[in-house]
Amino acid sequence: MSSFYTKSGVRLDYVESGDKNGKPIVLVHGMLCSKDFFQKQISFFKNTGYHAIAVDLRGHGDSDKPLEGYTVKTYASDLHELIMELNLQKPTLLGWSMGSMVIWDYFDMFPNEVGALICVDQSASDFAWPDWKLGVMTTNDLRDISEITQTDREPFYKELIDLMIHEPNEKDSEFFLSQMMKIPPVIAEAIVLNQTYQDYRETVKKINVPTIILFGGDPKLNPPAAGFWLHEQIKDSEIKIFDKSSHCPFWEETDDFNNTIKSFMDSL
């Protein structure tokens, strides 16, 4: 594991695998999660000729947990600093869940510095705006989450994990929970609130680099319809549904997922 300090002094931890001279792919995790969710992808890329990097966003995993900066745009800016430090040229950016929002903001800010996008199981907005039927969160939901995150978060996280996995099992659930519990409650609340109110319906229409959209077929957390909406908005994008997965196809259908992203990168 390696570390990098942003200009604001925040330490970000990351892991690398593969050929450092190969085409780069940067993997960005979801809300309340960590780079270790991509352990099966980091292992896969060791012998593919590609250069894979997975990072813990600020406040997550083993990275620093300052008292400020918990906005998706800040995560994107942090990511840009890391990519510049590693001298990665037009990387493929893979974002899962909130990580997709991070790479959409990254593209919006640095459109000429992105090679391709891989968007995994994330709607253009999680909030149920009056004109957005694919949003799943309401103001009342956020009020309840805000309170429970501060008072009794472990049962809430366990319920969330059951939604994330198509067929939950004790080993996976314990790992997911261990990563979520690394985040202090006050930071977790800030992360959830900022992420949920983001709206990328207009941003994604600007995407003009090769893009593939990967969704789980089990709609327990995000409906596949949200993926097809993205597919319709992003010109020349590809889409694939993993029927035996919920929110985590990279974890639940690892071989198919890894081969899919490698084939996509091979085509670039």
UniProtKB/TrEMBL annotation:
Recorded GO MF terms: hydrolase activity
Database matches in Pfam families: Abhydrolase_1
Bilayer-crossing regions: none
One GO cellular component, as annotated: membrane
Family annotation (InterPro entries): AB_hydrolase_1, AB_hydrolase_fold, AB_hydrolase_sf
Domain of life: Bacteria
Domain AB hydrolase-1: residue ranges: 23-253
Annotated keywords: Hydrolase
Entries under PANTHER family matching the protein: AB HYDROLASE SUPERFAMILY PROTEIN YCLE, MONOACYLGLYCEROL LIPASE
Record protein name field: AB hydrolase superfamily protein YdjP
Lineage summary: Bacteria, Bacillati, Bacillota, Clostridia, Eubacteriales
